[in-house]
Amino acid sequence: MNPLSTHQVDRITRAITPPSEPWRQKARVRLDTLTKPLGSLGRLEDIAAQILAIRQETFAEPIRKGVYVFAADHGITAEGVSAYPREVTSQMVLNFLRKGAAINVLTALHRAELQIVDVGVDADFDTIPGLLHHKVAKGTRNMLHEPAMSDEQLAEAIAVGVEVAEDAVRAGQTMIAIGEMGIGNTTSASAMTCALTGATAAAATGRGTGLNLEAHTRKIDVIEAVGHKHFGRSSRPAPLDILRCVGGLELAAMTGMILAAAEHRLVIVIDGFIATAAAAIAVALAPAVQGYLIAGHQSEEPGHKLLLEHLNLSPVLMLNMRLGEGTGAVLAMPIIESAVALYTQMATFTSAGVSEAS
Amino acid sequence: MNPLSTHQVDRITRAITPPSEPWRQKARVRLDTLTKPLGSLGRLEDIAAQILAIRQETFAEPIRKGVYVFAADHGITAEGVSAYPREVTSQMVLNFLRKGAAINVLTALHRAELQIVDVGVDADFDTIPGLLHHKVAKGTRNMLHEPAMSDEQLAEAIAVGVEVAEDAVRAGQTMIAIGEMGIGNTTSASAMTCALTGATAAAATGRGTGLNLEAHTRKIDVIEAVGHKHFGRSSRPAPLDILRCVGGLELAAMTGMILAAAEHRLVIVIDGFIATAAAAIAVALAPAVQGYLIAGHQSEEPGHKLLLEHLNLSPVLMLNMRLGEGTGAVLAMPIIESAVALYTQMATFTSAGVSEAS
Fold it and tell me: What percentage of chain B's residues is helix, strand, coil (to nearest 5)?
């Protein structure tokens, strides 16, 4: 285990405490005084109580939302595991900066601040403004043959996420969404799912951005071989080993951001399969992180369902999406904001003079 | 059958044509050029294509949203079918006007215009501003003993909905949500579900706003007796007979609004069990209405699932809500707006210089 990454991770995981149960309870009591049948707001009541437990404040000010898209390339693309060529990662980063991608449209519509973080794209972006420049390497190595990252790269990538989270806190953000862009990264997420949950490669592997049947079969074989190479008969590899050997630079940065965001009591909305894989590593390192997570949606990738069950998270949305970029997380934000607004703004039975149930 | 209501309904049903398939196809073609994997926006792509097919325009201007809450009382409350006393209907109308209810919070947050329509509340609201005054009667009759409405009341209530829809069109609204407030109205919705789908009273009856087990059993018995009284062995009662005998004034107005909204090519977001019962009557009268409907959510009421399946509608949200007022429909609006914004604002592969899948 790498002393650099374990040192930083240890410091953060020790600092994370679960959301406040007294605040959650207080929120539940207030929810039952509002002018609606008991429990009739369903999931929104759970979300409101969770957010009060996380934030431990009464939301005099609106939630301030940040969205972070971490981009990186993957050595495993040499094995033909993606329907899109590797250069799409860098092309999509440029599309984000020109505001042409789905995540740009959604963050503009729902008034969230969007940041694109280059943590490992195989392109030179040095002179391009509007991008957070945190490149650790020009992509990972091919994990079919060697660990995706070195110890130092893993530590650096995690540190990127921690730094970005601390900037979000300084900017006054209280709710963040975490998304990604990286051709090949569903292969990492599937390999991570197998290592974390014990699922077979066949169960944890989907068609990513649109593989045909033959390529899908090849992808399953690659993921099985990757797991065998790095973890052999180990039934419980250490979380940081999973991240280093079969993860990715964006996945490591996302893990770092999720850990630091939980430390700072931010509400963390996770997006799809890849973001959830990073969250699962964070929870494996510090179980209290789970209480800070809201699963924005459940994607079409079969491994996502496995990971959500593993994390005991229920998705806010199920819209059969499989796009990434944070899109599913941002779409859930208006629902989450609705829960908080209902909690803070509805009249009570007493204040409104409405009769209660018999 | 009442000549008044059949005449008006016949005129409208003849005027309703299905959404445009060429526009839907055109939308599908454009969706496949946008910078995302094919089909990866899932349900949002279906929604965007449906809305283009309905509106037959390219959305140079944002969607303008109206929310209509129809309120009325129900004679069946004499049978103890609700957890709340009858006067809660009028108390909640006052709560709506003072902006204290859940629907007020949600329409303010999501920037939709809210109108409350008194179509049959058992209270005198004559001097109260901010309410659309369309009272047909002070509630329905007890449908356990006689038809809930007379022919004339049914015709008047439907006409209220038609008038409100035409006002929405004149106000420039392009998407409407339809909700309700009426203590006792899940009993009507359950009786309507049985008559429309052939479901048993036990299968179509839930706990409404929170009945205990004993009261729930009594409610099932009431609904079974109501169905037997009005429809006896008739396996396919006429839709307007169902509405008149076991519906309600707000349900009739909602049916009228849905019919007229479809005629005028508005996007119609339906809320929970009661709104869907009204929509099911509208579809029974004019099958083309189905193409204008988006099911905002699926509520906890078991009959709602039956009706959504009957209408072949898939809910946008599943949040275990059972509040009514239009809340589930308004919560779906940011998702629906997202679909349209993605359709109109995303870059294409060509314009963004992004490589396509192999």
Answer: 55, 10, 35
Is the pLDDT confidence value at A2 over 70? no
Q: Do A331 and B335 touch (CB under 8 A)?
A: yes
The tokens for B67 are 């929310």
Average confidence (pLDDT) over A67-84 = 95
How confident is the model at residue A21, as a pLDDT? 98
| Per-residue pLDDT at A1 | 47
**Helix, strand and coil percent figures for chain A, each rounded to 5:** 55, 10, 35
Integer Cα distance of A123 and A356 in angstroms: 63
Report which of A309, A300, A39, A64 is spatially closest to residue A176, judged by C-alpha positions: A64
Q: Do B40 and A210 touch (CB under 8 A)?
A: yes
d(CA B133, CA B329): 23
What would the two tokens of residue B115 be? 């109108």
Question: If contacts are CB pairs under 8 Å, which of residues 264-283 in chain A contact chain B?
Answer: none
Task: Give pLDDT, residue B1.
Answer: 47
Would you say residue A10 lies in a domain?
no
Backbone angles phi, psi at A67, to 5 degrees: -125, 130
> Taking CA atoms, what residue in B is nearest to A110?
B334
| Stretch A12-26: mean pLDDT | 97
| Distance of alpha carbon B97 from alpha carbon B128, whole angstroms | 9
B10 is a domain residue: no
List the beta bridge partners of residue A270. A178, A295
Closest CA to B304 of B279, B286, B285: B279
Cβ-based neighbours of A167, under 8 Å, separated by 6 or more: none
What pLDDT digit, counting tens, does each position of A217-248 carry?
Answer: 999 999 999 999 999 877 789 999 999 999 99
We report the CATH number of the domain holding residue B142 as 3.40.50.10210
| A272 within 8 A of A159, measured Cβ to Cβ | no
User: Mind telling me how many Å the CA of A173 is from chain B's nearest CA?
Assistant: 19
Hey, are the CB atoms on B321 and A100 less than 8 Å from each other?
no
Residue B175 lies in a domain: yes
Exposed / middle / buried, residue B124 (Cβ in 10 Å: 0-12, 13-18, 19+): exposed
Residue A325: active-site member = yes
Q: How many residues does chain A have?
A: 358
Instruction: Please indicate whether, in this complex, the C-beta atoms of A100 and B323 are within 8 angstroms of each other.
Output: no
Greatest alpha-carbon span in chain A: 70
Residue range A308-317, pLDDT digits in tens: 999 999 999 9
Average pLDDT, chain B: 95
Domain that holds residue B247: 62-341
Mean pLDDT computed over B244-259: 98
- pLDDT on residue A321: 96
Sheet with A113-120, edge to edge strand ranges: A131-133, A113-120, A65-72, A175-181, A267-270, A293-295
- Active-site entry in A309, A325, A337, A356: A325
Distance CA A81, CA A147 (A): 17
Q: Is A232 on the interface with B (CB under 8 A)?
A: no
- Does B300 sit within 8 Å of A352, measured CB to CB? no
Q: What are the tokens at B185?
A: 């109205």
Average pLDDT (B142-148) is 98
Using CA of residue B218, residue B224, residue B227, residue B228, what is the dihedral sign? negative
What was the pLDDT predicted at A5? 67
Residue A37 belongs to some domain of the structure: no
pLDDT of B6: 80
pTM, entire model: 0.96
The domain total for chain B is 1
Facing residue for A342 by CB, picked from B41, B105, B356: B105
Tell me what ipTM this predicted complex has. 0.96
B214 interaction partners in chain A (CB closer than 8 Å): none
Give the residue from A170, A78, A153 showing the smallest Cα distance to A119.
A153
Q: Which of residues 301-340 of B touch A (CB under 8 A)?
A: 316-323, 327, 331, 334-335, 337-338
